[in-house]
């Protein structure tokens, strides 16, 4: 019975750890997506800078192609680039915080990845320790 409780507790710890890792991955994916969008916006801004502000251009707004002038579109694009930069900074901070929390949880609960060896484990092959082994 105690064995079943210990197993259930270790499974619960693994599930929490897995959820935390998934959240970290989602933040990293969002960062990559926004960086890509920001790069695309910068390319468009660089292309439009050289054009006459009265020249007509087309912009996609909410899935609808809208006719505007370069002079109208350029400030909006510059604003978007700045906003994306601020969002990226916030997400980078969140990613670092999530990484720290994940490391602390991992150390606190004795979670190891397959192939990890701690210094104590090398010195002392103690079979009584109860860690959780996570495959990558």
Describe the structure.
This protein has 136 residues and is α+β, with helices and mostly antiparallel strands. 68% of the residues lie in helices and 13% in strands. The protein has three helices and four strands. It has a two-stranded antiparallel sheet with strand order 1-2. A hairpin with a 2-residue loop joins strand 1 and strand 2. The radius of gyration is 25 Å and the shape is rod-shaped. The two termini are 30 Å apart.
Widest β-sheet, arrangement of strands:
1-2
Q: Helical percent range?
A: 55-70%
CA distance, first residue to last residue: 30 Å
- Helix/strand class: alpha+beta
- Biggest β-sheet: count, sense, barrel? 2 strands, antiparallel
Strand content: 5-15%
Instruction: Please give the count of helices.
Output: 3
Label the overall shape.
rod-shaped
What string gives the helices and strands in order? HEEHEHE
Key features of this structure:
136 residues; rod-shaped; alpha+beta; single chain
Topology:
Layout: H1 2-49, E1 56-61, E2 64-69, H2 70-108, E3 111-113, H3 119-123, E4 132-134
Parallel strand pairs: 3-4
Antiparallel strand pairs: 1-2
Helix pairs in contact: 1-2
In short:
68% of the residues lie in helices and 13% in strands.
């Amino acid at each position: 019975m105690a064995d079943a409780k210990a197993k259930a507790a270790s499974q619960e710890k693994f599930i929490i750890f897995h959820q935390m890792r998934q959240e970290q991955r989602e933040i990293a994916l969002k960062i990559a997506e926004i960086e890509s969008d920001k790069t695309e916006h910068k390319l468009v801004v660089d292309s439009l800078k050289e054009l006459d502000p009265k020249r007509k251009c087309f912009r996609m707004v909410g899935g609808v192609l809208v006719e505007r002038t370069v002079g109208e579109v350029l400030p909006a694009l510059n604003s978007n680039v700045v906003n994306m930069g601020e969002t990226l900074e916030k997400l980078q901070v969140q990613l670092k915080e999530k990484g720290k929390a994940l490391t602390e949880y991992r150390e606190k609960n004795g979670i190891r990845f397959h192939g990890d060896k701690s210094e104590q484990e090398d010195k002392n092959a103690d079979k009584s320790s109860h860690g959780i082994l996570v495959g990558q």
